[in-house]
Amino acid sequence: MTVSRILAVKGRQVATVAPEQTLHEVSVLLSTQGIGALVVTDHDGRVTGIISERDVVRAVAKRGPQALGDMVALHMTERVVTAHERTTIDALMQKMTSGRFRHVPIVEGGRLQGLVSIGDVVHHRLQEFEAEQRALKDYIATA
Ligand code: AMP
Prior knowledge:
Layout: H1 3-10, E1 16-17, H2 23-33, E2 37-41, E3 47-52, H3 53-63, H4 72-75, H5 89-99, E4 103-108, E5 111-117, H6 118-142
The chain binds adenosine monophosphate.
């Protein structure tokens, strides 16, 4: 099973932010959209980084409330681990586990196609598990 299956269910909308926006703007976006990370894109829509709630917390812990006025570029992670639509969900989970992060942007030909979070993966796995349970119950009932 590949990442494209998850995108087909959740959609391809990705919340983004520009590198010159502030951490306060990031906090507002994360809070109002109920998400944990924003992909940082340049004027051409290319991925230049990722900033998550962890980065905001780390910045405020280090510099105090004034960090909220800092530019995203100062606190984002620049080396973003991405995946393709054809990446398997198992391989995506490996990337998250070994990199210790919960978000992976999906990129094709340099263009952002979606974002998969650990929550999306868990949701997908639960659906698979429930389908297996139903199939087993049906099998037992008809055997
Ligand atoms: P998260 O667990 O996604 O909140 O992120 C934890 C840390 O990893 C933060 O410093 C993020 O900027 C960074 N991070 C999140 N996603 C990725 C990714 N796909 N590639 C590289 N770093 C990431």
